[in-house]
């Protein structure tokens, strides 16, 4: 019996198999070399075949989408991206670990973000926007805590993110992205 991940992976590969590498690369910004898709993940080419399962599923969904390439510049919350019902999991899996790591180290967020090709923005006390995938910018924001409140944070998407991935995939993408930032050395 297949797990949910096995089924999702199988369906995603099946969808990819119906497309030519030229079409996939032309619309996603990936490269295809020697029978392998190279995904620009955090501005580093990563082979699809060697990615962890969660990354593979999200990357396959991205590769087979027909999203809008030019970011709108309009930031939206996860809820605005259609994630109302999955929002508690999004907070638990992405926002909470992000705040735990960078809430007391906003400079660390900037350092990690810039190392991955991102740029500082003027949101919160510290923020950075990173193209985690070629046409998928995500803005990570930290608010430093004070006497009354602890630190807080937010993860915002360009409004075009909804054209690339569904809300559940955006939650996984944010979680995977936070993991990359947390593990930056």
Task: Provide a compact summary of the structure.
With 185 residues, the chain is of the alpha+beta class. It has helices at 4-17, 21-28, 53-64, 79-83, 87-102, 106-115, 167-182; strands at 31-33, 36-41, 44-47, 75-76, 119-120, 126-133, 136-143, 152-158. A hairpin with a 2-residue loop joins strand 2 and strand 3.
Q: Tell me the count of domains.
A: 2
Provide the gyration radius in Å: 17 Å
Number of strands: 8
Content of β-strand: 15-25%
Please provide the ordered H/E string of secondary-structure elements.
Answer: HHEEEHEHHHEEEEH
Mean pLDDT: 95
**Distance, first to last CA:** 40 Å
> Total helix count?
7
Shape: globular
Task: Output the strand order for the largest sheet.
Answer: 4-8-7-6-5
Going by helix content, strand content and strand pairing, the class is alpha+beta
Question: Percentage of helical residues?
Answer: 40-55%
Low-confidence segments, given as residue ranges, are none
Q: How would a textbook summarize the main sheet?
A: 5 strands, antiparallel
Description:
- This protein has 185 residues and is an alpha+beta fold.
- 44% of the residues lie in helices and 22% in strands.
- It has 7 helices and 8 strands; from the N terminus they run H-H-E-E-E-H-E-H-H-H-E-E-E-E-H.
- The strands form 2 sheets. A 5-stranded antiparallel β-sheet has the order 4-8-7-6-5. A 3-stranded antiparallel β-sheet has the order 1-2-3.
- A hairpin with an 8-residue loop joins strand 7 and strand 8 (152-158).
- Helix 5 packs parallel to helix 7 (167-182).
- The N and C termini lie far apart (40 Å).
């Amino acid at each position: 019996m297949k797990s949910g991940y096995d089924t999702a992976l199988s369906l995603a590969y099946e969808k990819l198999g119906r497309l030519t590498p030229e079409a996939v690369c032309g619309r996603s910004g990936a490269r295809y070399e020697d029978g392998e898709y190279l995904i620009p993940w955090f501005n580093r080419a990563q082979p699809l075949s060697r990615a962890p399962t969660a990354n593979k599923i999200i990357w396959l969904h991205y590769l087979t989408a027909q999203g809008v390439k030019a970011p709108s510049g309009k930031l939206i919350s996860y809820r605005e991206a259609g994630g109302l019902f999955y929002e508690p999991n999004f907070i638990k899996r992405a926002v909470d670990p992000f705040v735990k790591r960078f809430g007391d180290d906003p400079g660390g967020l900037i350092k990690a973000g810039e190392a991955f090709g991102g740029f500082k923005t003027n949101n919160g006390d510290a923020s950075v926007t990173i193209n985690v995938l070629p046409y998928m910018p995500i803005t990570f924001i930290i608010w430093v805590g004070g006497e009354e409140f602890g630190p807080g944070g937010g993860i915002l998407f360009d409004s075009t993110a909804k054209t690339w991935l569904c809300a559940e995939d955006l939650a996984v993408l944010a979680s995977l992205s936070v993991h990359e930032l947390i593990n930056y050395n």
